[in-house]
């Protein structure tokens, strides 16, 4: 019997001590170290295009806090830029992708506290922010064509969820 890895692969869900959520500090450091590259990329994009809405995807988001660190940093960067340029902030659409067995519920339960953090820590009122889970393998099509402005993936591509034949 051939097992379809993409149907069963997942990080340990929930928020217990041994969950991915509580044992992804190393991956968090990796995300922090790549922050300047993301900031440059999103700043260049927004300077050039001044988008009214900004569609961002995090491929292989898992169920930990890292996906929110990423979203927070990107929104904070764009908000600062808009203030500096005296432009209206865009609407944010954030697509959190992972394989179907990922614990998306743990992510959804944290959405409210993420939005509270945004309103407390980012100066002024941010553009509206819509966050959605997108279950499916990033080796296939998971969103419509020409839909995304910014695609991010950290520590996910090396997972052998698809083996070359
Ligand atoms: C180590 S976790 C990294 C999670 C998060 N990006 C971080 O930095 O903490 C790798 C994630 O990639 C996901 N993943 C692996 N292959 C995937 C695929 N083909 N499509 C979508 N997600 C995938 C796994 O399910 C897992 O949640």
Number of strands: 4
CATH hierarchy, class: Alpha Beta
Provide the list of bound ligands, each named once. S-adenosylmethionine
As a percent range, the share of strand residues is 15-25%
Mean pLDDT: 90
What is the CATH topology descriptor?
Answer: Rossmann fold
Please identify which CATH superfamily we are dealing with.
Vaccinia Virus protein VP39
Structural class: alpha/beta
Order of helices and strands: HHHEHEHEE
Question: Could you describe the largest sheet, including whether it forms a barrel?
Answer: 4 strands, parallel
Please report the distance between the alpha carbons of the first and last residues.
Answer: 16 Å
Outline the structure in words.
- The protein has 165 residues and is of the alpha/beta class.
- It has a single domain, classed as Rossmann fold (3-Layer(aba) Sandwich).
- The chain has helices spanning 5-8, 25-33, 35-49, 66-84, 104-121, and strands at residues 53-59, 91-98, 129-135, 150-152.
- The protein has a 4-stranded parallel β-sheet with strand order 3-2-1-4, covered by helices on one side.
- Helix 5 (104-121) links the parallel strand 2 (91-98) and strand 3 (129-135).
- Helix 3 (35-49) crosses helix 4 (66-84).
- The model has no long low-confidence stretch (mean pLDDT 90).
- The chain binds S-adenosylmethionine (SAM).
- The site of S-adenosylmethionine has 26 residues, from helix 2 and strand 2.
């Amino acid at each position: 019997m051939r097992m379809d890895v993409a149907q069963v692969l997942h990080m340990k869900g929930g928020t217990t001590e041994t969950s991915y959520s509580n044992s992804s500090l190393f991956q968090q450091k990796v995300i922090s170290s790549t922050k300047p590259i993301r900031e440059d990329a999103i700043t260049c994009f927004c300077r050039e295009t001044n988008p009214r809405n900004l569609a961002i995807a995090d491929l292989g988001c898992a169920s930990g806090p890292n996906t929110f660190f990423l979203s927070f940093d990107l929104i904070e960067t764009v908000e600062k830029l808009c203030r500096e340029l005296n432009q209206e902030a865009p609407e944010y659409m954030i697509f959190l992708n992972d394989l179907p067995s990922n614990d998306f519920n743990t992510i959804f339960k944290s959405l409210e506290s993420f939005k509270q953090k945004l309103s407390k820590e980012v100066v002024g009122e941010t553009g509206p922010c819509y966050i959605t889970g997108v279950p499916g393998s990033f080796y296939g099509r998971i969103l419509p064509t020409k839909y995304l402005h910014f695609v991010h993936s950290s520590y996910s591509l090396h997972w052998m969820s698809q083996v070359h034949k």
